[in-house]
Amino acid sequence: MTIRTTPRAGSPSLGTSPAGPEIPDLPLVSAILEAWYPRAARVLPWRSERSGYRALVSELMLQQTQVSRVVERFANFMAKFPTVRSLADAPEQEVLAAWQGLGYYRRARFLHRAAQAIRDMHGAEVPENVAALAALPGIGRYTAGAIASIVFGQAAAIVDGNVLRVLSRLADHETRMGDPAAERWAWRQSTRLVQVASAPGVTNEALMELGATVCTPAAPRCDACPLAAQCAGRASGRAASIPTPRRSAARRTLYWHSLVHVDDRGVLLTERPAAGLWAGMLQPPTIESDTPLDVTAIGTTWGIQVNKVAQFTHVTSHRTVDFTVLVSSSECTPAIAGAHRVPLERLESVALSNAAWRVIECAGVPVKTPLSASAGRRAPRAARSEPTDS
Ligand code: SF4
Questions:
Q1: Which of 34, 59, 209, 361 is catalytic?
Q2: pLDDT for 350-364, tens place per residue?
Q3: Whose Cα sits closest to atom 2 in ligand 1?
Q4: Among 222, 238, 242, which is best to mutate for testing ligand 1, by the most ligand atoms less than 8 A from CB?
Q5: Are residues 230 and 300 in the same domain?
Q6: Among 21, 69, 185, 385, which lies 20 to 30 A Cα-Cα from 78?
Q7: Is the residue at 2 inside a domain?
């Protein structure tokens, strides 16, 4: 394989358009990626056997969630819902319960609705083209492109955070994460790339893999990169500072006061409202406020005495939730509308958010939570950085 001389930013070989530079030599870039991928790809469960349905499930799981967490849960989810039809026909609460530990439950609802649309409109076969995929509930341009290219071999472009970073560095183009102009530029480069690729799906997956394992945000390992000779960002010495991080939106702080009440019949839970954060999921009874509340007054509201046993914060994409964990210090059952008991041995089969599990854990309830499996690990980055929900 012929490797061209490293281009430099602003050099005549790096064509420019009003929106930014065009990455040169894309047939070579694609060929290098396709040669590199088979020997560098991580072994991941959704890669062992390809199907539209497996790709749909894994792509939805990987949004905003680290790979290690998805690896832990993918096989169980597929065992429970092995086909589009089995997922489409399942009650939503069962789907949410199987999604536990992955967070961002809105994705589980979208996946469920997408399966129903595939059952009803496509004979339970995942469609092959981008337009039909993108018309499914919760499926954006990136996910549609990933499935169409990786599973069905179509020349469909993809741009997520990893791809935008690699492309920006290859071009030494100073983009900013979340900037619409930067994303338009990246989509154009990605489209150009798959149009010249001999195997668009392999090129796309290699690009994502390179971004996840080599061309990482703070410390790109250029010495180990198959595209080092093609990379203008490496040549300019600016790669690690490209792209600049997205401007963070002001995050609202909420104060939630949660009661963990356990007796010999189980733990008391209520259902969250049908819309909003963790919609429709179960949780220990909670009083929500924009300010911290007096613990004694909360106990009076519920007709019991309570003690505060823990406090923690849970950060979502748009909010910081400050949890105060309370337990009853009296024998009587609290008066809470809509509350019902779930036996401890059944807790794993109901839909609880990670935050609700943490509340239960903080109160010392003797139950194995989905958080236990990941305890003690440093949280790596999300696999897919497309924004989804809170
Ligand atoms: S050479 Fe470095 S900056 Fe360029 S794509 Fe490879 S890892 Fe990223």
A1: 59
A2: 888 889 999 999 999
A3: 222
A4: 222
A5: no
A6: 385
A7: no
- Give distance in angstroms: CA of 239 to centre of ligand 1: 7
Cβ-count burial of 162 within 10 angstroms (0-12 exposed, 13-18 middle, 19+ buried)?
buried
Tell me the CA–centroid distance for residue 168 and ligand 1, in Å.
Answer: 10
The residue count for the chain? 390
Sign, CA dihedral 28-31-33-39, equals negative
**CA–centroid distance, residue 384 to ligand 1 (Å):** 19
Q: Where are the beta strands (DSSP E) in the chain?
A: 16-17, 20-21, 252-260, 262-263, 266-271, 282-283, 286-289, 306-315, 319-328, 340-342
Give yes or no: residues 265 and 214 share one domain.
no
Residue 174 Cα, ligand 1 centroid: separation in angstroms? 14
Q: How many domains does the chain have?
A: 2
Look up 59 and say whether it is catalytic.
Answer: yes
Do 58 and 183 belong together in one domain? Answer: yes
**Mutate-to-test residue for ligand 1 from 231, 238, 242, highest number of ligand atoms within 8 A of CB:** 231
Q: Is the pLDDT of residue 332 over 50?
A: yes
Q: Provide the percentage of residues in the chain whose pLDDT is more than 70.
A: 90
Of 145, 192, 202, 201, the residue nearest 170 (C-alpha): 192
- One-letter amino acid for residue 347 of the chain: L
